[in-house]
Here is the input.
Amino acid sequence: MKKLVTFLSIFLVIGAGAVFFIIWDQQSNTPTIPATQIEETTENQEQDSDENSEEAITEEEVENGENMTNQFVDIISEAVQKTIRFFSKETHIVAIGDSLTQGVGDETKQGGYVGILDESINESEQHVTFENYGKRGNRSDQLLKRLDEAEITSSLSEADIILITIGANDIMQVFKENITNLQLDDFMNERTKYEERLNQIVAKLHDVNDHALIYFIGFYNPFNSYFQDIEELSLIVDEWNRTTEMVSNNHDNITFIPTVDLFEGTSEDLLAEDNFHPNYNGYQRIAKRVLDYVTD
Here is the structure.
């Protein structure tokens, strides 16, 4: 059942998935109360009229319910077929980066968005192999050095798709180094260096593998819970994401995947207990967004 929930969360719009489960539950497990049970409380009505009314309402409700259910089944089938067609040949995906790639915060301990992708895509049969090199706390300068490690280089050279999360810890480093006198210029100056390192990362990836599709996954704003008095935080996050997107657009085979909007304007709890990393629900949203971009 858990696999099914994960699968539907990734392939369906959340609202459509919720409606589907409601309809399915009503039809399969908790049928609508028969009209006769309601009519028993109504006095002085003809019994044969009650039975005819019950039969007419039930048939109409069943027909409407079946039509709606069939529509949502078609949506599921289309999403499944789209993914299977895309991964019709053996595909190797390498994920590398910081704690968002490692899956920190996922209370189910299933590997965050990478684990969700693995479980969903390979639910019925093995379509894709995954290797995860996420490392908590990684900044762009540290990721740049890790690309020289033999194991990582070898894995990247065989990848068809490369997924990267990076940047949030670079911002956090600015906080740590300037905590007593934090200025907006500190972030802007470091952002320029971050851009240079991203270009170096891209250059190394292209040297190792010139055919893989590379996806930089943007980060949301995890800092508000800790620095609520800094109004410029949203501006800082937006600027750094825009930098990653710009670098992506300047190179072949690279796509930027935004995630800021996934964590805004919702009452759903999407963060882990540390109020910094996503929880399982948050990673589900990221996984669906990644899959949408990869299979588009």
About this structure: The longest strand covers residues 91-97. The radius of gyration is 25 Å. Confidence is low (pLDDT under 50) at residues 1-58, 68-77.
